[in-house]
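Z., the sequence and structure:
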Amino acid sequence: REVLEARDTAQGEAERRYQDLEDRMARDGEMHREALDARDAAQGELERRCRELEERLAQDGETHREVIEARDAAQGDIERRYRELEERIARDTETHREALEARDATQADLERRHRELEERMARDGESHREVLEARDAAQGEVE
């Protein structure tokens, strides 16, 4: 009887420990399942955020490309306008040089014509003096 009681007690103790182990395994299984669910949720969140970042990166890359294209276009426009200004300055410089040459030629022509007029006036003055002398001589002859 004592052996049977000891066996039953040991059996009860073994069943209780087995039940405790099963309960613990069930709790551990539940915790494992919860951990897996949390891992899957975190993985899903990471994948979602990764996709968002990839989309933002693609948009930023597109924006960056557009900014570079706009910068290149503006640089091209600046270079074109600079060339136009250089050409205009060259034309204006050429026009200025031509104007100076024309002014100098006109000045030289005016000076030449002035000398010619002075010479003519001197000749006319000489002729006038001769005419006056001839008149005076004729007047004297008449008298």
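Helices lie at 2-142. The first helix runs from residue 2 to 142.

Let me know what you think.
H.
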